[in-house]
Amino acid sequence: MKTPDLAFDLIVVGGGMVGAALAAACSGLGLTIAVVEAREPRRHWPRSEIDLRVSALSRASQRLLERLGAWERIQELGASPYREMRVWDAVGGASIHFDSADLGEPDLGHIVENRVTQLALWERLEAAPDVSLLCPAQGGLLTLTPDLALLDLADGRRAAARLLVGADGRDSWVREQAGITTSGWDYDQHAIVAHVRVTRPHGETAWQRFLPTGPLAFLPLLDGRCSIVWSATEERARELMALDDAAFLAELEAAFERRLGSVTEIGHRAALPLRLQHADFYVKPHLALIGDAAHAVHPLAGQGVNLGFLDAAQLADNLGEALARGRDIGGLWTLRRYERARRGENMRMLGAMDGFKRLFSNSDPLLVGLRNAGLAAADRLAPLKRAFMREALGLGEGLPSLTRRRAPAAGGPNQGSRDGIETVN
Ligand SMILES: Cc1cc2nc3c(=O)[nH]c(=O)nc-3n(C[C@H](O)[C@H](O)[C@H](O)COP(=O)(O)OP(=O)(O)OC[C@H]3O[C@@H](n4cnc5c(N)ncnc54)[C@H](O)[C@@H]3O)c2cc1C
């Protein structure tokens, strides 16, 4: 067997938002860490340019990013807070309104470009003495032996680690190499993403209208524009993408009932296929999956990367615990603890999003009546709305330590503190 050219304790394949967060969360634990990333992140772009891929980040994600020392940089590069959320049904018209003030919270989350989050984390990794960034680099072959994970890179080098983590996204190469199957299905929907300018102020509110062909969201951006995520059946999405800008804007205004006035400007549009996908298991000896490599969820409630950050924070907790107890970080004793903590939670969220998608795309009059009555009743039930907001914000119980509300006597990696960074909530 070829001797490894490089040896690490932990290799993370995929340095996107989730993989970079895991490496940053494990930095300082006494491990040698490598991040293998295929594409160098972009470092500069014109100030007025906003990338099409944005995510709504929850409070739990914000806390993690604060503790990893990335949040300040994210704010510097641009994070748009949203303080309210308005959701309504196109058929029947019932609506629900969420306001962060009802929870005593400053906001319900932030809309952040994915590349901003990745870059802020990446800069932290560049400054970390225990992290090696192998980029651009890609795996050619992955072999799991009883003792190690061996990664043959496409450039001919072989890297060995006690634990290899697949954070390489929805079409994960690591997952495929490890022979981990997935369950799920393609939604018959594509999400059209674009940025638009509207004539009325967005009011730092995230808006979502449920149409029978899929939900349409307007998310507030710092410069007054909105980022739209329009999920539509494949056929409808194809029709919409074929329209010129003027015709598309007319359809968009009609679909959104002109709630924010006229839509006067639109940039580039892209359509992304949507899929529900869940890895049948997350771990094997010396291997774990996190983020979209483990689960892909419908974007209707903006939960995908938030779940991925919880995976990263949980795995960092379990690795810290293993090290403290003298256990192998790649052993099943360690990895099953991670899987037990996250797989059920992720399954619950995948199921809930799938249920919402099905409920709102159904035009059966009985179901339409029931869901409108339910939505209207929920809007009047303050405790229920608060519980829903707490869940969406990630304020619940049982969170990994780096995402928890700061305990009064914080300290040490498993007490939710890094780099002496204090959190606001
Ligand atoms: C339309 C839309 C809207 C969304 N909105 C939200 C939202 O509001 N909130 C939210 O929480 N989530 C949202 N999501 C989901 C979110 O985008 C994903 O959950 C998130 O990007 C997953 O992050 P990741 O790091 O796991 O994977 P990715 O972002 O896919 O990153 C994977 C990384 O691995 C690298 N890579 C891939 N293969 C290899 C390889 N073989 N070797 C080395 N490197 C490799 C890639 O270059 C990339 O950097 C949305 C998704 C869609 C489609």
Write the SSE topology.
Layout (H helix, E strand, L loop, with lengths): L5 E8 L3 H10 L6 E4 L17 E4 L1 H9 L3 H7 L1 E4 L1 E6 L5 E5 L9 E5 H13 L4 E4 L4 E6 L4 E5 L4 E9 L6 H5 L4 E17 L6 E7 L2 E7 L5 E8 H9 L2 H11 L7 E4 L3 E10 L3 E2 L2 E3 L5 E2 L7 H21 L7 H29 L4 H16 L1 H12 L32
Parallel strand pairs: 1-2, 1-11, 2-8, 5-13, 11-19
Antiparallel strand pairs: 3-7, 4-7, 5-6, 9-10, 10-11, 12-15, 12-16, 12-17, 13-14, 14-15, 17-20, 18-19
Bound molecules: flavin-adenine dinucleotide.
The site of flavin-adenine dinucleotide has 33 residues, from helix 1, strand 3, strand 12 and helix 8.
What compounds are bound to the protein? Answer: flavin-adenine dinucleotide
- The percent range for helix content is 25-40%
What is Rg?
22 Å
**Subunit arrangement of the protein:** single chain
In percent terms, what proportion of residues is strand? 25-35%
Q: How many beta-strand runs? A: 20
| Low-confidence spans | 408-425
SS-based class: alpha+beta
What would the principal axes of the Cα set say about the shape? globular
Q: What count of helical segments does DSSP give?
A: 11
Distance between the termini: 51 Å
Q: What's the pLDDT, averaged over the residues?
A: 91
The biggest beta sheet reads:
9 strands, mixed
What does it look like?
With 425 residues, this protein is α+β, with helices and mostly antiparallel strands. It contains eleven helices and 20 strands. It has helices spanning 17-26, 59-67, 71-77, 114-126, 173-177, 234-242, 245-255, 304-324, 332-360, 365-380, 382-393, and strands at residues 6-13, 33-36, 54-57, 79-82, 84-89, 95-99, 109-113, 131-134, 139-144, 149-153, 158-166, 182-198, 205-211, 214-220, 226-233, 263-266, 270-279, 283-284, 287-289, 295-296. Strands 5, 6, 12, 13, 14, 15, 16, 17 and 20 form a nine-stranded mixed sheet that branches. Strands 1, 2, 8, 9, 10, 11, 18 and 19 form an eight-stranded mixed sheet that branches. Strand 5 (84-89) and strand 6 form a beta hairpin. Helix 1 packs parallel to helix 4, helix 3 (71-77) crosses helix 4 (114-126) and helix 8 (304-324) packs antiparallel against helix 9. It starts with 5 loop residues before the first strand and ends in a 32-residue tail after the last helix. Residues 408-425 have low confidence and may be disordered. Bound molecules: flavin-adenine dinucleotide. Flavin-adenine dinucleotide binds next to helix 1, strand 3, strand 12 and helix 8.
